[in-house]
Amino acid sequence: MAEYSRRRVLGGLGAALAVAAWPGLAAAAGKALNRAALPGGGGSIPVIGMGTWRTFNVGEDPELRQARTQVLAAFFEEGGGLIDSSPMYGSAQSVLGHGLEKLGYPDSLFAADKVWTRDGGATRKQAAESAASWGLERFDLLQVHNLLAWEAHLETLMAMKEAGEVGAIGITTSHGRRLDQFERIMERHELDFIQLTYNIRDRWAEDRILPLAREKGIAVIANRPYQGGSLIKGLKDRGAPLPDWAGEIDCRTWADFLLKFIVSHPAVTCAIPATTSVEHVRENMAAGRGAMPDAAQRQRMIETLAAA
Amino acid sequence: MLGSLDTYALRDFVPVTPEVWARLFERLNEQVWPWQGLFLLLMLFALWRLYRGGSPTAGLALAACWCWSAVQFQFLLHTPLNWAASLMGWAFMVQAVLVLLVGLGGGWRFSGGLRAKLGVVLVLAGIVVLPVAGPLTGRSWAAFEVAGTAPTPTALVTLGMPLMARPISWVTGVIPVLWLVYSSVIWWVSGWLPGAVVAPLAIATLGVATGASPWSRGGEPS
Predict the structure, then answer these.
(1) How much is the average pLDDT of A16-24?
(2) Shortest CB distance from A276 goes to which of B9, B19, B24?
(3) What are the residue ranges spanned by the domains of chain B?
(4) How far is it, in rounded angstroms, from Cα B198 to Cα B180?
(5) What CATH architecture is A6-307?
(6) pTM, whole model, 2 decimals?
């Protein structure tokens, strides 16, 4: 979905080689995930994406770069689309660029990044640096990270969108911070996306933010779907059994259970779990397939988790 | 910016996974091989010079280790993972200058007593206990942290040396303590207990040493 740089253009041969090296990529189309429509007729994206905070910050370590490339390959083999990063995430952007180049920049990529600088005049410069790290010409989505210098950045991002320099724009927060201000920005500005923390335990957004996003036609990316990993780790460590009725909504694992809860909210477009494990990425992606819980089942999921 | 700190866990402030942090020390050893031995010898040389009555060369040797750790660990390996690591690198350079100045300014002359013994404890922790604790508790031998090259053992030795000396110079202790706190937080989040307890134990040792007379138990001033 993204437009790519010279590296990508010259990489047509590389793409063919990538399919040879990563044969699973060729079969990706046969494993379609549920997709969510983007507001404003902007197409659709798979409901499970991938975050990169901590997990892709491996620096120049060739061994770990190879391991993350395998995670990316599994993500795309499973039909993944949206990948989210930020200049704040250390080397994550360049590690992504390394992996994507190895994989020949799969067509399903929906590249989402952020602007994270106090310098309100540095929006374009930082976006260009981030794009260079990914090996892209432009991003499908650029967001103002944690509302840092948001007024100046948002104004520039709007101009960039107008000029076709970015596909969509948005704002982010996490951990339920500054929700009042977040809501005011949503009300007063034309946003395509918002990103915030939403999971079965952290449901602050349900009261006002998510209804407002629906009303205004703003796509929603849910970060920290496992509360930074502690939620699913706790369930697995305790050996908590899935409820008998989980099969009704095609849940085979706790990852299914937790992610399906998130992406079944009518306002949520996509969840972005982060992982360093090929096994876990496949587990995450499986949650984007099959039946999704309805409102009554979602309430049951909340009660089940509270008792687990 | 941090409007609701209660929603954060300590791990939310650590930008790397335990795997990456552990690998950092393997990569450090890969990149400096075989010079670890040389820098360990420099550390031992500094200690020997201190024991033999003090000399500017003790500070010089220690300064070389801090410079090496600043460049090789902080600037080259750590900075790509954490933008704040470049600041840590410059702090290590400042530390190199401090130990050099203390060394040139008359330096450290060995002194006995309880405080010196506590200094020996910190030095041994840096040269032997912490490095060996890694492989004995499941970390790779390839990640063996060598004093003089790896920052945490170097910091421990640097904290221990002034305690063994007279006059004591606390100024060279600030940056090592700050590094130990940072390192312990990362290891705490990463789940490696020996690494996590280094800062609390070192600070407790310094606390006891602060209250200890430098010439108690036989360490009479000359």
Answers:
(1) 60
(2) B19
(3) 15-211
(4) 7
(5) Alpha-Beta Barrel (3.20)
(6) 0.84
